[in-house]
Amino acid sequence: MVAVAVLAYFLVVALGVVLVVFPGYRRRFISTLLGALSNGVAPVVKVGSRCSSSFRRTCESSRQGLGGLGLFVSSKPLLAGSAFFLVVAPSLIALTLRSPAVFDFSDDGQIADRQIAILLEGEQLVPPAPLPPEVFTTREVEMIRPDVINASRNWTLLDQLFTQRLLVVFKLMKERHGYDMVLIEGYRSPERQARLAEQGSHVTQAGANMSYHQYGLAADSAFYRDGKVVISERDPWAMKGYQLYGEIAEQVGLTWGGRWKMLDYGHVELRRKGVLGRDVVQ
């Protein structure tokens, strides 16, 4: 459908350029069009004849016009090529730069990935069973998230729409790529946010009530492998997982922290206008 539309656009623009730049062709085109309209519907064409009698003059005029155009192209190839490029360039640039859409913003508002659209519109997904607290107290986890043992992993405190989108991400990470996801932290109280902000900008750049965590619209996640939480980005397996996680999260309309200046690969959030005074990460 896109190719047909681009071709139609090209033909219309090309015809318009020819009619504007070359007055002679414009007069012939108008004359031909008026002649065709005045003759009405053409009679049956005889076998072996190239034109019916009622359109003989029209065909002759068209052939003369094409011959003149061919003569112009052969005599001035550089000018003709430049004009052709100017006509074709917008369509070629649009096709070259066109990237796969995350969302299809047509009237039906469907998501480009049909499986994701079905999951979001279908039966409500159920959060996974909570993991034992001790899996969040390993040396690896504490080195990266030292206070994560006190973080909330209560799914019921999260926004319902955000929860469903995050669960779709978890489901597709398992089904498509074999990664088991685990929620590290969901809802974060203003008091906890303030304590984290006091630790410095390397922990968070958002103060109390200035993070989507406080509104149940953000979550930090990691991976679960062989009974352990894998959170380190130095693990090539985990780093690959974070990239896949970010791609799927963006496909369901979430903002991924892996694209921020202060990288936060496990963080996703569902941004809403009016929730924060400004869009603040973490």
UniProtKB/TrEMBL annotation:
UniProt domain Peptidase M15C: residue ranges: 207-270
GO molecular function: carboxypeptidase activity
Pfam families registered for this protein in UniProt: Peptidase_M15_4 (PF13539)
Gene3D superfamilies (alphabetical): 3.30.1380.10
Keywords: Carboxypeptidase, Hydrolase, Membrane, Protease, Transmembrane, Transmembrane helix
Stretches that traverse the bilayer: 6-25
InterPro entries to which the protein is assigned, alphabetical: Peptidase_M15C, Zn_M74/Hedgehog-like
Name listed for the protein in its UniProt record: D-alanyl-D-alanine carboxypeptidase
Originating organism: Dechloromonas denitrificans
Lineage of source species: Bacteria, Pseudomonadati, Pseudomonadota, Betaproteobacteria, Rhodocyclales
